[in-house]
Amino acid sequence: MTGLKHVLLSLIGHVTFREVHGAVIPPPTGRHSVSRTKIEIQYVNTDDPIAPNNVTTAFLATVYYPTSESFTGAPVPYLDPALAVLFEDAYNVTAGSFTNLTTDAIIWDAPLLKHTGYPTLLFGPAGIGPPVEMFSILLSDLASYGYTVIGADHPYEQPFIRWPNGTALYGLPPFSDLDFDPSILYDIRVNETKALIESIPLIETAIGGAINSTHIGTFGHSVGGGAAVRALLQDGRVTTAINLDGSILGEDQYIDAVKPGILLSEEGYADPRWENFASAQTKWWKHLAVEGSLHVDFTDLAFWKEVTDVKAHSMSLGDINGYRQVEITRTFVRAFFNFRPSGLGGADIRRPF
Fold this sequence. Notes:
Elements: E1 6-8, E2 33-46, E3 55-67, E4 76-77, H1 81-91, E5 102-103, E6 106-108, E7 120-124, H2 136-144, E8 148-153, E9 160-162, E10 168-170, H3 182-198, H4 200-207, E11 216-221, H5 223-234, E12 238-244, E13 261-266, H6 272-280, E14 285-290, H7 301-307, H8 322-337
Parallel strand pairs: 1-14, 2-6, 7-8, 7-11, 11-12, 12-13, 13-14
Antiparallel strand pairs: 2-3, 3-8, 4-5, 9-10
Helix pairs in contact: 2-8, 3-5, 7-8
């Protein structure tokens, strides 16, 4: 068994980005252009403690994928304006701080680049937000290397989503506390992960090409990270998982996945359930902790804190430079999914740079 190895990522050298002009988010670093599209996935969740009448009949998939088309024209807002305003209000930041964030790299609804052969990655966002859209810096980067990345937003749980037909749906306010067993939410997320896999033909039709349906990885942040581990344990179609700073609940902590993965955490994360989980594993697992980071630094807010005043309004953003955090998260997530023991091929994570 490979034991838990806690690595402080404090020795990573100087990182470089293309100069950020105004409030343009860091561009993807791979060679492919990137597109995204939204798809409504029909799936009935019963006994949903958040939804009206405790039932949801669909969830939102946002797909990031490589394309042969190129971004043209001036930078455009990368967040839905209603989502941006909602989080501006939640963080009590200067009006326009998030609304004015733009991209000069992500295209809407372009056709899929054919035959990349890369695995399909399923992503789960944090519980009660932020939603998938606020992880675009990481997800678009993966897509630029050839991966198809599918993020799932659960309606009513996420503070805001917009369906493909333009309908806005507001859910729980940001930073709400759950008044039910969070393991229920994990199960909902896992069920939707399974539904995503079964919906691959629908997704292929929507983006205009075939994606990898035999090599599938899961990853996520917070609740999404814990649910990614649970999906790995429950679904044989999932080959590997990354948990970004999420709790491992219940009996999950004692089960051997017999598959590789990574636990990537904020500095000082000392949840004994992570230790229990790692001790139970017989395949390759590592615990990597990012020095100077806190929980929200694994979202796009890591970059936002460098170009807005959001850090002054959040106790969950650490002192690590936001550009550096973006580089670390992107590099280690990508390196792991390229990791040979995962069966997906690629570079050795021990030498990710």
